């Protein structure tokens, strides 16, 4: 598999742009940055259960269906903003890269009050074989385990 020489800047830009697309609720734009075999999962470790929990696990089609159903869900009022810091990018011999990032999700209610909503990490697998990097997998591992009702958009 031939890999185009992409800098870490291109990979970082993909991670940041994916967060901006989710902030803007531009879900079609988000999916344009994902490969055909894209997989998205949200996980958290439960000390009470002594094991990892999977809260969401969808392929690309499942994500498209989730995004299409969002207008019919009762949702939290206000906006979300993601703050992402890329810790590391490790290139693999198979034409992919693995990136590890920190993510903070801040919620601002309609009155303008902002609060930290969730904290976690992104574990991304990125395909480098095309003309632009594409997300192949994103596992969101949350530290926050109490999200409350009305949170239906991806972290």
From TrEMBL:
InterPro entries xref list: NTF2-like_dom_sf
SUPFAM superfamilies on file: NTF2-like
Highest rank taxon of the organism: Bacteria
Protein's UniProt name: Hydroxylase
């Amino acid at each position: 598999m031939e890999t185009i020489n992409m800098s870490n800047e291109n990979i970082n830009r993909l991670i940041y742009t994916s967060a901006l697309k989710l902030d803007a609720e531009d879900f079609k734009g988000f999916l344009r940055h994902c490969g055909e075999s894209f997989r998205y999962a949200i996980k958290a470790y439960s000390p009470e259960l002594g094991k990892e929990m999977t809260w969401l696990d969808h392929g690309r089609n499942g994500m498209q269906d989730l995004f299409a159903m969002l207008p019919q869900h009762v949702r939290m009022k206000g906006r979300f903003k993601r703050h992402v810091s890329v810790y590391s990018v490790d290139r693999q011999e198979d034409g992919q890269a693995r990136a590890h990032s920190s993510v903070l999700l801040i919620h601002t209610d309609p009155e303008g009050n902002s609060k930290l909503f969730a904290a976690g990490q992104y574990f991304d697998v990125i395909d480098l074989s095309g003309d632009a990097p594409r997300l192949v997998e994103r596992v969101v591992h949350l530290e926050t385990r109490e999200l409350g009702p009305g949170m239906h958009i991806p972290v």
